[in-house]
Amino acid sequence: MANQVTKDTIIMDVLRIDPNTAEFFFNIGMHCLGCPSASGESIAEACAVHGVDADELVGKINEFLAKK
What we know:
Blueprint: H1 11-17, H2 22-27, H3 36-40, H4 43-50, H5 54-66
């Protein structure tokens, strides 16, 4: 599995890459990472619901993953 995500990456796949990425989703107000939405929702979809810039979130997550 690649250690880089895109706006189309499913949130649960991001968490599988590194569970510590949960912090980024908590910071945008997405606290139910175990709910069905997280299992099938992309980063872009979650950002749209929570009013967050998806490109900015993807950049932060990829920066975090690159340091691993």
